[in-house]
Design brief:
about 280 residues, alpha/beta, Rossmann fold, Helicase, Ruva Protein, domain 3, 5-stranded parallel β-sheet, 12 helices, about 50% helix, about 15% strand
Length: about 280
């Protein structure tokens, strides 16, 4: 068997060594943020949107708050996630000091607990939705001033906003349009929803964001080179013909390139044969 573990990644956190292409898309997102523009990233599921955003978090140099909208079920819960992310990026170690400094207008509504998993913050139900949004805005502004550079707020899985509140886009509208030092990057896989919200003149967030449309498959040359290199790096060998077969059968789809390569790697002890590839495809 190969000397190392299978290094093809499926549904894992961003890894620079496993990131293929998307140079133009990454450059576009960096340039947009640098100019102070909000961005909405749209593309099919499992097409690399999350990895692109994670690459931005790791490599852009901006302070970033990442919020997955599927992880919140109310505006209070959403605010809790904002607070937790802010606490993380500030690398705070004193939750009481953090609350008194950054959440002074929320002191009577917020409590925290410390356990082996870290610090958790809870907002009580007495805080209204409107006040939750106001406090979130103030927190963003405070953090931006603290860092002294543009703050980026990534709203992943934006189609999940309805789980939080139907009117969330309306509540976010003024901040999307007026705060140049706090930039929003939203992402979503439901194209029709994104188009209606952001790019139709009847949409609540019309003209509030630039559009980054991820719709192209990965290029063949880079995928083949990547597949061959990852096999060699883990003590196995695959020739260019077999690597091309992996590419053509997946058509360069980011998720399936990784998944099929993962399966082929598991099915061979040393040198990959075309039979190994076909069996994995089957």
């Amino acid at each position: 068997m190969g000397s190392l573990v299978n290094s093809f990644k499926i549904g894992r956190n961003y890894c620079a060594e496993n990131f293929i292409d998307r140079k133009q898309e990454y450059s576009y997102s960096c340039n947009a943020v640098e100019s102070g523009g909000n961005v909405v990233v749209v593309g099919p599921r499992r097409f690399g949107k999350t990895w692109l955003l994670q690459k931005f978090i790791v490599e852009s140099g901006y302070p970033v708050i990442y919020l997955d909208l599927f992880c919140s079920f109310s505006l209070q819960c959403f605010l809790q996630n904002v607070i937790r992310q802010v606490y993380r990026i500030l690398k705070e170690e004193n939750p009481a000091g953090f609350v008194s400094r950054y959440l002074k207008n929320l002191v009577k509504h917020v409590r925290f607990s410390v356990d082996v998993g870290g610090v958790s913050f809870v907002i009580d139900n007495e805080l209204s939705d409107e006040e939750s949004v106001v406090q979130m805005y103030e927190l963003f502004e405070s953090i931006q001033e603290e860092f002294g550079q543009r703050l980026v707020v990534i709203l992943g899985e934006f189609q999940g906003y309805k789980l939080i509140r139907e009117r969330l886009p309306e509540l976010l509208k003024s901040f999307f349009q007026m705060q140049s030092d706090v930039v929003f990057v939203a992402s979503g896989s439901m194209r029709q929803m994104v188009e209606e919200l952001f790019f139709k003149d009847s949409g609540v967030l019309y003209h509030s964001c630039l559009k980054l449309d991820i719709k192209s498959m990965l290029p063949e040359d880079e995928c083949v080179e990547y597949i061959v290199r990852k096999f060699v790096d883990t003590g196995k060998n695959i020739d260019e013909m077999c690597a091309k077969r992996i590419y053509t059968s997946t058509r360069g789809h980011p998720y399936f390139v990784q998944m099929l390569s993962y399966e082929v790697w598991n099915r061979t002890e040393g040198n990959v044969t075309m039979e190994d590839v076909e069996n994995a495809i089957d």
